[in-house]
Design goal:
Elements lengths: L3 H49 L5 H5 L19 E2 L7 E2 L14 E7 L4 E5 L5 H12 L6 E2 L2 E4 L4 E5 L9 E2 L1 E2 L19 E3 L3 E7 L4 E9 L3 E3 L5 E7 L1 H9 L20 E7 L5
Parallel strand pairs: 2-8
Antiparallel strand pairs: 1-9, 3-4, 3-15, 4-14, 5-15, 6-7, 7-12, 10-13, 11-12, 11-14
Length: 281
């Protein structure tokens, strides 16, 4: 059993420890207070300098004549043209397109076909990667001699699909890229609210695979067509839509009904040449 002397000694040591802890806490509080005061002083000093220098002058900020300095370099889209499926034997090696140059000038493709000429005008502002790819392929004669292999005729879906040199529906270039959602942002919704309306004359990119990628195949809407807004709208038919109308009027053979729908057009059409028109001066 502890003696009175031992109990007093233990109590004295406990009290000493408590006093030491309190002294340390007091020193910490003083240090924190000094740091806070110093930081506040620095903030006040900086704000004072900014105020005197006119950094908060509202007149300068609201001056309509004060415009940001314009860059002399055009903005360019970041397009990733990735290698196509190596297991697809129907891909044609045509190299890879260069990056878009940032031009917003429409790209005009003149098409000569076995059913008559027509013209496609591509929009690089909302579909820079698709427009750039289509221009590149045309410059390399990729589309020349290729048949339009698929026609769909229905009340809400009417398209002619082209761009596969093999005419089998699985061909394309040796690269692929992703869809461009900005190109379909302004499309009107369909009555059922589940799709969008691609207006008559639209030129949009076909896609396939998982995740869906784009190659060279495109479709032309010869009537207002209801589709999910997942297909890059690259341009419009600006002349010769009657050529597409005549092919559509002939119907299709139903050979794609079990898969993608529609079939080969009963009035065959082949793209004899697709060339990039010279820019209008």
């Amino acid at each position: 059993m502890a003696t009175n002397k031992q109990r007093r000694e233990a109590a004295r040591r406990q009290l000493q420890r408590q006093l030491e802890r309190r002294a340390e806490e007091t020193r910490k509080r003083r240090r924190n207070t000094l740091v806070g005061v110093a930081a506040f002083s620095v903030v006040v000093l900086v704000l004072g300098v900014l105020f005197l220098s006119g950094a908060f002058d509202e007149n300068d900020a609201a001056d309509p004549a004060a415009e940001p300095e314009a860059s002399s370099e055009p903005e360019t889209a970041a397009c990733t043209y990735a290698p196509g499926n190596p297991e697809n034997p129907n891909l044609t090696d045509v190299g890879v397109p260069p990056e878009p140059d940032g031009s917003t000038t429409p790209v005009v493709l003149d098409v000569a076909s076995t059913q008559g000429p027509f013209q496609m005008t591509l929009d690089p502002t909302t579909a820079p990667c698709a427009a750039n790819s289509m221009k590149y392929l045309a410059e390399n004669a990729f589309f020349d001699g290729s048949p339009c292999h698929r026609l769909v005729n229905s009340d809400v879906f009417g398209v002619l699909q082209c761009g596969d040199p093999t005419g089998m529906g699985s061909g394309g270039p040796s690269y692929s890229y992703l869809a461009e959602p900005a190109s379909v942002a302004s499309l009107a919704p369909s009555p059922d609210g589940a799709s969008a309306i691609y207006p008559r004359g639209s030129v949009a990119m076909a896609q396939g695979g998982q995740p869906p990628t784009i190659g060279s195949q495109f479709f032309i809407a010869f009537q207002d067509t209801q589709l999910p807004p997942e297909y890059t709208l690259v341009g419009t038919i600006t002349s010769g839509i009657e050529v597409i109308d005549a092919v559509a009027a002939g119907g299709n053979d139903g050979s794609f009904e079990a898969t993608a729908g529609g079939g080969a057009p009963l009035i065959p059409i082949t793209l004899t040449t697709v060339t990039v028109a010279a820019p209008v001066a």
